[in-house]
Amino acid sequence: MAAELERKAGVAFIDEDYELAVDLFSKALKISPNNAELLASRAQANILLHNYLEAVGDAFKAIELDPSMAKAYLRKGIACFKLEEYQTAKVALEKGVPFTQNDPRFAKLIKECNACIADIDGFGCSCSGKYCITVRRGASTASAKPKYRHEYYQKPEEVVVTIFAKGIPENNVVVDFAVQTLRVAIEVLGETSYHLLLRLFGKIIPDNSRYAVMSTKVEIRLAKAEALNWPSLEISDKSTDPKKRQIPSDQRPTNPSSKAKVKDWDKLLAQIEEEEKEEESKDDATSSDMHQKADADTQRTKNKKFVVEGRKVVEGRKVVEGNPLDSEEARPKDISDLKWNKMNKKATAYIRQWIDTSSCHHMANETNAHNL
Question: Where in this protein does the record put region Disordered (predicted)?
Fold first, then answer.
């Protein structure tokens, strides 16, 4: 029965009906699950259908069943290369070379792998284990419901993946760690095989990762290469690499503040000085004009008023050492306060000048009166 299905699958393959070929090979494998030839043939059909992940799984199992099957190594290498896992592809091809009869395809693919590895500067998986494969973003994945449920949680230094498989003997569980890949295979005689292939969100350290088979579950601990948070277990099209956010050296982080915005006092002072220059020119012209037009009695009244008020201001003023804007309490809250401080200071200077001038005039008048 399996032989007949294999023959029909071969005919479908020749007719380039690869989907039918995969279906027939799968039916034959249900009858003869440990047939390495069937697995290698289905791997080739999956490659032509661009189902590279499934092709790697078939080739991997075929190699386990027959470690001397050269075409299984070749198909694993091709599928890994298509998935851009050049280091893994190279390892598989190099392992298959001793079982070939100078097949030029191996040498050609190994050369291409070396070129790609050099171009991407070690981006691909660097493990040397028997299985290391990652899923290309956007690649198709199996839509069938998994046999066992799995979930994960993480710590700063590791990610813990739990597969809820009860009563599985430890010898029936195979776990392979790669730099950014996790593969789990559970084979139980008389039951459907379970395969879990994950392209991890971040990179791990395979040598520091471990797993344990318990009575109710399989617990896998993945050692993170970097202590970064993973938003998800698997990488996807919308995922981004978990890179640390770098702050440029010339851009210091700002602390949160209750202030609406930072005030540029130098700019405000320059603005005020510019406004004062315009106001001074207007005020001086107005005061000079009014003083010249006023009669002698009015001028004497103004002088007396300025003298009296000036003495009150000078006697009651408080001397403040240092810059009043240096302290947080004395700092003006807005531009109007800043203007008032400057105007008050300037008014005091004007009044003192009026006092000195008026005193001189008063003394001169007394002297003249005495002489008369």
Answer: 235-304
Confidence of residue 361 (pLDDT cuts 50, 70, 90): low
Q: Which helix (H) or strand (E) holds 13?
A: helix 2-14
Q: How far apart are CA 180 and CA 46, in angstroms?
A: 23
**Structural domains in the chain plus CATH codes:** 2-120 (1.25.40.10), 150-223 (2.60.40.790), 265-371 (no CATH)
Residue 119 has pLDDT above 90, yes or no: no
* Buried-exposed string 198-236: b where 16+ CB fall within 10 A, e elsewhere: bbbbbbbebeebebebeeebbebbbebeeebebeebebe
pLDDT at position 279 over 50: yes
140 pLDDT higher than 50: no
If DSSP codes are grouped into helix, strand and coil, which group holds residue 223?
strand
Mean pLDDT of the chain: 74
Whether this prediction's pTM lies above 0.70 is answered by no
> Can you read off the two tokens belonging to residue 27?
């039916």
Q: Write the DSSP symbol of residue 46.
A: H
